Amino acid sequence: MARIMTLKEAVAELVRDGDKVAMEGFTHLIPYAAGHEVIRQQRKGLTIIRMTPDILYDQLIGMGCVDKLVFSWGGNPGVGSLHRLRDAVEKQWPKPLALEEHSHAAMANAYEAGAAGLPCAIFRGYRGADLAKVNENIKSVTCPFTGEKLAAVPSIRPDVAIIHANRADRQGNVLIEGIVGVQKEAVLAAERSIVTVEEIVDDLAPPSPNSCVLPSWTVSAVVEVPGGAHPSYVQGRYPRDNAFYKAWDPIARDRDAFKAWMQENVMEKGPEAFAAYAGERA
Amino acid sequence: MARIMTLKEAVAELVRDGDKVAMEGFTHLIPYAAGHEVIRQQRKGLTIIRMTPDILYDQLIGMGCVDKLVFSWGGNPGVGSLHRLRDAVEKQWPKPLALEEHSHAAMANAYEAGAAGLPCAIFRGYRGADLAKVNENIKSVTCPFTGEKLAAVPSIRPDVAIIHANRADRQGNVLIEGIVGVQKEAVLAAERSIVTVEEIVDDLAPPSPNSCVLPSWTVSAVVEVPGGAHPSYVQGRYPRDNAFYKAWDPIARDRDAFKAWMQENVMEKGPEAFAAYAGERA
Amino acid sequence: MMDYTSTEMMTIAAARALANDDVCFVGIGMPSAACNLARLTHAPDITLIYESGTIGTRPEVLPLSIGDGELCETALTTVAVPEMFRYWLQGGRITVGFLGGAEIDRYGNINSTVIGDYDNPKVRLPGGGGAPEIATSCGQIFVVMKQGKRSFVDKLSFRTSLGHGEGHNSREKLGVTTKGPNMIVTDLCIMRPEPETKEFQVVSIHPGATREEIIEATGWDVQFADKVEETLPPSAHELEALRALNARTAAAHGEQA
Amino acid sequence: MMDYTSTEMMTIAAARALANDDVCFVGIGMPSAACNLARLTHAPDITLIYESGTIGTRPEVLPLSIGDGELCETALTTVAVPEMFRYWLQGGRITVGFLGGAEIDRYGNINSTVIGDYDNPKVRLPGGGGAPEIATSCGQIFVVMKQGKRSFVDKLSFRTSLGHGEGHNSREKLGVTTKGPNMIVTDLCIMRPEPETKEFQVVSIHPGATREEIIEATGWDVQFADKVEETLPPSAHELEALRALNARTAAAHGEQA
């Protein structure tokens, strides 16, 4: 059964130095508030996993929390580079960053295999592409029926998955809706999980019997953090803050500007600051 | 784009002698009306595929349409045996029936792999079980990362998939809701498909952005057949006719009783007879 | 004390073995009755999962099939069948799976496929369905079956699902890390695997049943534990809950007919 | 005739190549503009799919990211990302995929990973995302990129996604049965692969552009087809639709700011 906790408690108990952490969200529902709490609690030596690392992972990397990044596309969508990521890879600032790079298809399959309890995923991929030459976690298996060679990657099994969701009920059951990404898989694949939600309600009221729901007993902690996905968005509540994504570019380009911004907006703030971005349920 | 057709036209054009046919439905939404049309049009030499063949497949087998059955559980749920299936296997009446037998996990994975365009599925299965000894389509692959031996089965790629769904819109987009089984996978894995629906509406109106929807361009034919799942059921419209399932047992036990029932209720009827079972949308 | 039938005793004994935090993969028939009885008595928060995709379901009446509408309507969520077998069963989330079959042997291996030769069977049974992977993926397996010489056999015609194989560490040798069949509840008694050999032995006899009856109803030379208990008879509360459930079920199925 | 920019010409030329029955795997930026322009002009029923899971989406304004709320709100349905890559992309249901990148070579191989050495890069680019499998799973690939010597290169630093490999039957030798890159649309011209060698050659030059400009903007010894056409300039209808789309987009993104 999920415990309903404060964000500070949940991160303190469930995210540990050296953990493999997946903070997922495919543009939608990115767990910014929870990621900031990880930064505030100064976790170190993390391996962070995500298909589409964006500003949040830029912040974790720039603040020195991260040893390794597992990813398939790392950028500021529609804007450009992640400058803290680039600075770490190109100039080892604030410390060297190991990369394990995959394609989206590989990562999506690896999360799916992790949720399914399998050691690896197979798919038709990487044909004629160079990534297999620089990533020893890309191998192959041969179909025993057709002889076709298929790509194989290890399943993703995070120590802890962190996601943001639309809402939860008081028992800790979680509803994810809209662009659901790989969040369900990330939680099911992980040993532990933290789910921040816009609100905790009496009745989960999924709109369809087939809605994407995580039962309480598959989640470690549920935390109510209204606005907790900002500058990402929550379908039907508040839109993506595209202006913030654009404004991040000059902040992240400069090490001092970055540090100053993080000090003011993360280190000296708490999850309650996100409430300013929360909208009303449509 | 799906064409909106009559059932007679759709079966005449899309189901051919010798086809591999998957008429899926996991208790819910079993395509009885469409299956009866296949019997009326006297298709021969079919390979019929289904996880849970029930009365409909008993009828197809008893009427001599079938050469081979691919399945994982063949019975009358909560009642007992399928007597026509047993008669074919045990006494070759009306003709011999080849069996390819799997577990549910294998079939579910094989449909999933078929929808995913893969030649095979891998899963952790059949350990210590005898089926692998009598089914040459159960093989194994070795995980290249852990060395674990995993079961492998060929993906299911039907020539034609036939399902019944809750509703479609006039463009031929299909909504499946409730116990969705493997129907989406069966259609996506198949070369051709027929979807019968309770009603065709102006606005599909899926209740959730993540509802189970088959876009029109993934379906060959959509046919409106109210009540077309009877004696199976349609969530929110009409309940499972449990009394019919129980009443089938004595009919199917006797070859003559079976033939008489089929003559009267299938050969001399048409899909419009199912309308009597259709309920109002809840 | 109230009168009760041996079937009621069997169902109640199985229900008692379930805990409030169990996640059960429920089969139709006896297991469904036992799981829902547990939910309606001592384990109100137990999670029931049916292979049709319904998770956290709380049916008012027992389903006739594994996919009755009642299961979906009262479920927390309903997933597609491939997801059920991949994320939920194979994913290792199920603590207790229920199995039954036409034949079981002393090590809890089960046959639900054929009687006689596979290619030329005397009786073609429905087949294993989910059993081969339920038997190896769930934390432990409970078996609920009426006891008799034709079903409790010395040698299976076909091994549909793995129990403890040939006994001892058979499961480990196959790389299977789950506990396997850990209890057989019959209309006469409760059996548990002997810790070393893994052969099922009688650990509790239902009130009114005798050792002689059990020996007579078992196709192998059945063993009894050093200390055999008498099964606690059904309490009034258990019997009332089970009978009310059965009555609701009968009424619901009758109404639909 | 109306004035127009080279970016408008590029977008419109790409849009024209799309048919009403195409199923497009759309990337952000130029491809998104081209696909939606096609939908708003000659291909009203075209199916647009974004890798965020949105199928059959009909955005009123262009998304900034691959997963803007607009895409989900106007989609026929939105699926999980693993399903998107398994059932929809790998399943072979996409007729046209769009790709772009930092570098492209004469065979349509693309780099969006690094400039320089992989382990010690001069520039770390965002990475391939969906590109490796988009390049091999879609029926054909269209590339939309501004032309220049630093992007149209003789030799890639890294091959993120397969085009025609080393030319000729490179794809077949890798077991890839899809057509691969079949058109490059730039701000200067349209290129198509020479049928035999698969080297991209100029088949149509946009009004106002010259062979010299194209040669100057290409890092390899670019070839011209025997018959090179002049690209039809944007029609008033095309320009109006594109500008209205861009205006709606600017207004929407501005409002949110």
From TrEMBL, chains A, B:
* UniProt entry tagged with the keyword Oxidoreductase: no
Would the keyword Transferase turn up in this protein's UniProt record?
A: yes
Going by the UniProt record, its keywords in alphabetical order are: Transferase
Q: Which Pfam families match?
A: CoA_trans
InterPro entries linked to this entry: CoA_trans_fam_I (IPR004165), NagB/RpiA_transferase-like (IPR037171)
Domain of life here? Answer: Bacteria
GO MF entry, a single one: CoA-transferase activity
SUPFAM superfamilies in the cross-refs: NagB/RpiA/CoA transferase-like (SSF100950)
Write down the PANTHER family for this protein, in alphabetical order: ACETATE COA-TRANSFERASE YDIF (PTHR43293), CHOLESTEROL RING-CLEAVING HYDROLASE IPDB SUBUNIT (PTHR43293:SF3)
Q: What is this protein called?
A: Glutaconate CoA-transferase subunit A
From TrEMBL, chains C, D:
Annotated GO MF terms: CoA-transferase activity
User: Quick check: keyword Transferase in the entry?
Assistant: yes
Q: A Pfam family matched by this chain, by name?
A: CoA_trans
Could you tell me the keywords of this UniProt record?
Transferase
Keyword flag Transferase = yes
What's this protein's name?
Glutaconate CoA-transferase subunit B
